Amino acid sequence: MSNPEFKALLRKYNAGNCTEEEKTLIETWYLKFEVDDPVELSQEQINGILAMQVPVQIKPQKKQLWKWVGAAAAILVVLSTGIYLKINNAKVSEQVVSKEQTDVDPGVNKAILTLATGKKILLEDAKNGVLTSEDNATIRKTGAGQVEYLVADNQATTAILLNTMTTPRGGQYHLILADGTKVWLNAASSITYPIRFAGKERKIEITGEAYLEVAHLADQPFHVVSRGQDVEVLGTHFNVNAYADEPVTKTTLLEGSVRITAEGHTKILKPGEQAILSSTGLKMSSADIDETMAWHEGDFVFNSQTLEEIMRTVSRWYDVDVDYTHYKFNKQTFTGVVSRSRKLSAVINTIKKSMPTLKFDIHGKKVAISN
Asked: Checking DSSP bridges between strand 299-306 and strand 333-339, what pairing results, if any?
């Protein structure tokens, strides 16, 4: 490929007309070399770019829970304690809890939207339609647990105005940002973002867990800041899990390219790779896409996880506290799958299939565990 041909490819990329192979090549090169002027390249530089071995797609080895999106690159960032392993294909049927116990409903669509003025809106109580307007942007609630930002023009105020959406334990919500980026927040999570994106980059901050489908803007990279790391993408799909009680940060790439910066180190991820950030540093490993995407697909997937790891996840979704007063901690692990739409008793009965010596007592919003 000659210099003029490569420049034509860049113009094609900026216009959004590249194939997946061409887009992956350009994005991997951009994230790796960080050149200031991409059109002023020598033939030697272009030859080096073309020589890069860039896999375009990873074929999953098991049944897919995640439906691949061919129009954009996809990343998954997961910050969690336990390592998700292989999915158990058999779902355990729900059993009835004893009459002496109460049961707990699963989480629902609920969140709090904090405006730039400090005003808070309880989204589950708000009616569908326009909620308010800020910085020449209209904020409206749709009928499916979703809020979207509609920008009328490109005229923003001088100051960058930020909004924050927060989900409580037992809540989740869907958000569409001003640039078209889609965000799904899991329970006990938050996202802080500009009402509209201006300047040379787009930047948001996330706590807890969120799945994002980032709108492709070639001249405005997207940055996600969460628990000691910065993830830069151009247009992609990824999941961020940044819960404060989960000490390990995992970033998993599905398609395309992503650059991760953490603790002074930078890694370029290839599809199917996972970066794990812990107190000992940043390392790479292979990824299991199906299991990591399970929460977004509406399931709990537990494979060789300890009871403590499982209950941290369960407590967020069902908004319950766990009492371990009469539980002796051990290395026993559990493997199973259960839908997030079921009551708490279904999850507990699934766990008891593998851990029959455990006793669970549900009293209101507290689960007491003993063995």
From this structure: antiparallel
Is the whole-model pTM more than 0.85? no
Looking at the fold, whether 152 and 192 belong to one and the same domain comes out as yes
Write the CA distances from 171 to 98, 121, 139, integer angstroms: 26, 15, 20
Residue 299 contacts residue 91 (beta carbons within 8 Å): no
CA distances from 301 to 48, 109, 270, 290, 332 (A): 42, 21, 25, 9, 17
If pLDDT is split at 50, 70 and 90, which confidence band does 297 have?
A: very high
H or E element in which residue 189 lies: strand 189-194
- Dihedral pair phi/psi, residue 71, rounded to 5°: -85, -10
For residues 23 and 132, membership in a common domain is answered with no
Q: How many structural domains are present in the chain?
A: 3
Domain, as residue range, for 353: 299-370
Please state the φ and ψ torsions of residue 312, each to the nearest 5 degrees. Answer: -65, -45
Quote the CA–CA distance of 84 and 334 in Å, as a whole number: 12
pLDDT at 276: 86
Q: Are residues 259 and 142 in the same domain?
A: yes
Answer whether residue 24 shows pLDDT above 80.
Answer: no
CB under 8 A, 24+ apart: contacts of 97-102 = 97/345, 97/348, 97/349, 97/362, 101/345, 101/361, 101/362, 101/363, 102/362, 102/363, 102/364
Provide the sign of the torsion angle of the four alpha carbons 17, 22, 26, 31, taken in this order: positive
Is residue 147 in a domain? yes
CATH label of the domain that carries residue 157: 2.60.120.1440
Per-residue pLDDT of 172-181, as tens digits, reads 999 999 999 9
Domain termination site, one of 292, 320, 347: 292
Which tokens go with 314? 């369960």
73 against 137, higher pLDDT: 137
